[in-house]
Specification:
This protein has 225 residues and is an alpha+beta fold. Helix content is 42%, strand content 24%. A hairpin with a 3-residue loop joins strand 1 and strand 2. The longest helix has 16 residues. The relative contact order is 0.16.
Amino acid sequence: MALTAQPLYLADVAVVRPMTHDDVDFAAALHEVALDHGFFGRLGRRFLAAYYESFVASPHAVAYVSESGEGLSGMLVGTVRNGAHYAWVVRQRGPALARRGAAALLARPEQLRTFVRTRVGWYLGGLLRLARRRLAPAPRTQAGRPPAVLTHVAVAPRWRASGAGAALVEAFELAARNAGCERAVLVTLAGRDGAGRFYRKLGWTLLETHADHDGRLLECYQRRL
């Protein structure tokens, strides 16, 4: 079960609570609409539902939804032990996610070509690095705990600028702090298409910019906890 913080109540706006199995279809549908610029957003709701289910189940992740009097309004997922989370996903959910992803790609030839051209080598390299770590774990260092990672956050269009997004991010920060993380990081699109202005208002600091697999410019932010 994902690590959770106490729900954060906002009068007349939303209640933030842990995401459950029953909420993953909502999260998948919202991701498909609000985060369609990302590769996962083009793989369909069946894959996305399995993807969000992995955050709900992982002991190294947090998953939240915001809820108003009219229903669900937003969602957020992230990790408090990023490497451990993805190692857990590979072991526990890897085959199921791979099947869903393969089915989605076979039904979408254009996305399959994009995956082969831009991502297959990166994913295979990641699996190889994970296997090496399992065979020969790296020695512990005193460099400090790795940061929490805010992976995805989205609010339904009618609830944007309501405070629901800020409440979701605050709940994530609290969960990361309670898990012992000293800072959190995230990545968003640069410029008007991204959410940099939103995060800066919440106290996040721009660290760097770089291009993603598709050549788009990304901004990396961090928040001291």
